Structures are given as structure tokens and as C-alpha cells.
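Supplementary Methods S3. Complex input for the galactose-uridine-5'-diphosphate-bound model.
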Amino acid sequence: MSANLTNKTVLITGGTGSFGKTMLERVLREDVREVRIFSRDELKQEHLRIELRDPRVRFYLGDVRDRASVDGAMHGVNLVFHAAALKQVPSCEFFPMQAVMTNVVGSHNVVESAVAHRVQHVVCLSTDKAAYPVNAMGMTKGLMEKVAQSVARRLEPDDTVVSSVRYGNVMYSRGSVIPLFIQQIKANQPITVTDGRMTRFMMSLEDAIELVLFSFGHARQGDMFVKKAPACTVEDLAQALQNLFGTSVPVRTIGMRHGEKLFETLATVGELAHSQDMGDYLRVAMDDRDLNYEKYFTEGEPDEADLDDYTSHNTHRMAVKEIEHLLLTLPAVRAELSSWETVT
Ligand SMILES: O=c1ccn([C@@H]2O[C@H](COP(=O)(O)OP(=O)(O)O[C@H]3O[C@H](CO)[C@H](O)[C@H](O)[C@H]3O)[C@@H](O)[C@H]2O)c(=O)[nH]1
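Predicted complex, serialized as C-alpha cells:
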């Protein structure tokens, strides 16, 4: 079961970003009443308006940091999908307070506004970088999860359901490593590998969207959903792309960038101890205890010592052929390949 969107009014914050836009297209395939796009950039909104020409789509200029502008878009909304964020790791390292303002304060505004307007459900978009965070982007996304759960904890059963979703790297997303490597291969330049041993969870944008819809369909108060995913090393990813493009450019090792980790964690042992396996997804239930811990302790609870974190090092590791296969499922990679084949 996915979400029932029939006759619903859906608000997408960050609706002109690549994630928000794909979500918008997906939602418009359903029989929705209205979709509201809330974002800061008037030019991007104008382009999207011209591209879509769909009377069901309404545009709201505003900034999640400004609660009044969020409130202005929330009236009569049934579902909120909160994607507005600062998500570039390096820029958040240099401007961490900007990440705090958008990812923490802004998310708090969105969730509180949704609750105040009696929205049915709000889903907040998080990332694997929020687990054991080392960079400002991950730290602020981790705090966003905490803010969402703290609001959820105080709500009554028929109030807004507040949930989060966490997933790994979206393949071919703007500014990410796959389009960069392809551009380097096409220009016959060395492929710049930070550290060949580094692993990342890999998933498509469509997978990420389905995760959000799954959360709309299944979340209980305060839940977080995690999409299980395979992973690969950066070295194997570079090799797979070279094989697909039939080239052999040199690989140059450039070293880890600001705030990077050797591997990512999608769910920590503490989270796994109160999670439910739902096939492609894990449901991590909110810890809804208050501060009187001794009254909750029962013998026979799952022991964290028996569990491992769920990481991009211990999930299924794709071999080079498997990565090639997955890359070929992406329309953008297929388009890059066919334009390359006509040139060569
Ligand atoms: O020139 C490069 C650039 C990156 N990498 C490596 O490729 C992997 C993926 O790098 P990306 O920049 O594609 O992705 P990140 O894991 O750094 O972060 C990405 O995923 C995050 C979600 O977890 C955020 O969305 C973020 O904005 C997005 O860039 C990393 O191991 C990175 O070190 C290289 O080897 N060479």
C-alpha cells in the first residue's frame, strides 16, 4: 500500500529542487486536488510554471526560516512533504549557521505549522549522513530528525502524524560524483577519486520518492523509514563507468574532502534495536518513553551488543558488473551514453 492521494492537497517545500520536482511529477500522476510548491527562487518557480501548465499546481514564494511564509501556504493542506534543505556537504561546512537556520529552525517551522493547521501527515526528508554525523549537513539533518520526533512525542492520536525518511546517495543527482565522472571521461581527463575504498549506499531518485510515499501510507506517530540499499566503492564505480563508456582514462587520487566519511550508516544499532523489517524498508519506531527510564525496563529486550550498525561497508557490496547494470537503469546515464556513442 502506498499513500492515497486522491482529492488531497499536497504541499512540497523545496519543490523546485531535483527531488521536489520529481516528487511533484509523481504526485501529479495521481488524482490530487492541488499541489503547492513552496520555495525561495521565483525564477525557478516561473520556469516550472511554464513547463507544467497544470492548473492543479500553485506556487508560494517563501523561506522555511520565516514561519509566517510557511503558515501562508499551509491552510487546507492534507499532506506535507518537507524537502527544503541545505544539502551540500562542503557549503554547510563553511556556513554551518546557515544549515542550522534552514535545516533545523526551518524544519521546526514546517512541522509546527503543519500541526497548527491540522495537516494529516508531514514527512521530513533526511539522509544517512544524519547517523553518527561528522559534517554540519549531517548534524543539522540529525537535529531535524530530533525536532520532528520531539514534536511527535507530545501529539495526541488524531493530531498530525510526523515522520521522517532516511536514504543514501541518489545516483546522478545534480553536483554528485556520477555526472562528474562522466564529464571527466567524456573530456578525456583523469577521474578524480577521493579514496577508492570509500563506500556509499546507492539508490535512484524514483526509489527515494517511493520511500516517501511509503511513509505517507504506513507511518505511525514519530516513525522513521529507512530504505535498504546496496553499496559500492568509489573505485568500482569509476571502473564501471569506464567500462560503459569503453574508455580507459587515468584515475587520480585527490584525498577525502571536508567532512567526509569512509562509509555511511543508514541505521545505528540503537535504532535497529527498535526497528521493524518491512522488506525493502526498515521502520524505526520513535522512542516514546519519558525521562523515567527505570519504569520501562523489561528483561528480554533486544540486546544492542548482538547487533551491528547498518552501513555502506556491511550492506550488499555491488561488484563492477552489477554497478554497470544499475547505472544502465538510469535514463540520464543512458542518454549520456547514446550522445557519447554518436560522437565516437
Ligand atoms: O571528485 C570526486 C567527488 C566525489 N567522490 C566520492 O564519491 C562519493 C560520492 O560523492 P558525492 O559528492 O556524489 O556524494 P556525497 O556522499 O559526498 O554526498 C551526497 O549525498 C548526500 C546525501 O547523503 C547529499 O545529498 C550531498 O549533497 C550529496 O553530494 C564519495 O565517496 C566521494 O568521496 C570522488 O571520489 N571524487
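The chain has a mean pLDDT of 94. Residues 87-89, 127-129, 168-169, 176-177, 180, 192-194, 198, 200, 234, 260 surround galactose-uridine-5'-diphosphate (CB under 6 Å).
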